[in-house]
Amino acid sequence: MSKITVYETTGFPNPARIRAALAEKNATDRVDFIEIDVMASQHRTPEFYAMNPMGTVPVLRTADGQFISESTAITEYIDHQFEGTPLTGRTAEERAEIHMMQRRAENLVLDAVASYFHHATPGLGPTLEINPCEQWGTIQKANAQRGLEYFDQHLQSRDFVAASQFSMADITLFYGLGFADFAKLEIPDSLVSLRAWRDTMSKRPSLGG
Predict the structure, then answer these.
(1) What is the pLDDT, as a whole number, of residue 1?
(2) Of 55, 81, 107, at which residue does a domain stop?
(3) Per-residue pLDDT tens for 8-42?
(4) Domain identity same for 102 and 27
(5) pLDDT tens digits for 70-86?
(6) For residue 117, is it within any domain?
(7) Same domain (yes/no): 96, 77
(8) How many domains does the chain contain in total?
């Protein structure tokens, strides 16, 4: 039987989210990884578009040949395919809260930082950055800064982002902060709760601890 395959680009935040999910499930060695060289535009070939018409990594190929893209969808698949830490919740309430907070972590931090990086900085260079809009990037930088403040307040009285347990919402926020570092978007020292949460998460084996 064929193994599951993940097409990824090492060092990019969304593939890192999938690596973390697999590590939480102790399933990393049950998956084959294929490197996609984004800097060489391998994500813009007809072969890659056939797997994911959005042209983004990561993409997961199931053992029976189905392609799944979008990090949240891939994490859902991993969560139900492998035993281990439940990353998307057990009860209806947990699942709803985790998905809500995961989307906030994407929208308010990870995606906002990405838009800033790709539109208001040199990003990945002129060959790869298509139609950058500096004004939009600047707006998204401000949105990301507000998102950091939101999560600092949110984490003042809790250990995890959602449902009192580690979940994909924590993974998304953690790598959103990592992307902020890469994009040179400062996480202010005043955001004490957010920084403390990040320090705690960084010690988790699946997140590099």
Answers:
(1) 47
(2) 81
(3) 999 999 999 999 999 999 999 999 999 999 999 99
(4) no
(5) 999 999 999 999 999 89
(6) yes
(7) no
(8) 2
Amino acid of residue 55: G
Mean pLDDT of the chain: 97
- DSSP letters along 70-125, please? SHHHHHHHHHHHS-SS-SS-SSHHHHHHHHHHHHHHIIIIIHHHHHHHHHHS-TT-
Amino acid occupying residue 26: N
* Bond before 205 cis per omega within 30 degrees: no
| CATH code assigned at 129 | 1.20.1050.10
Torsion of CA 155, 206, 85, 172, to 10 degrees: 50
Is residue 164 in a domain?
Answer: yes
Would 154 be classed as within a structural domain? Answer: yes
- State both tokens at 48: 């890659």
Residue type, 161: V
Mean of pLDDT values over 110-132: 97
Residue type for 88, please? Answer: T
Cα–Cα distance measured from residue 93 to residue 84, given in angstroms and rounded to the nearest whole number: 20
Distance between CA atoms of residues 206 and 26, nearest Å: 9
- Same domain (yes/no): 103, 203: yes
Q: Residues 187, 113: contact at Cβ < 8 Å?
A: no
Any domain includes 136: yes
Would you state the pLDDT for residue 209? 77
> 37: Cβ–Cβ under 8 A, 6 or more apart, which residues?
9
pTM of the model: 0.97
Q: Which domain holds residue 183?
A: 92-207
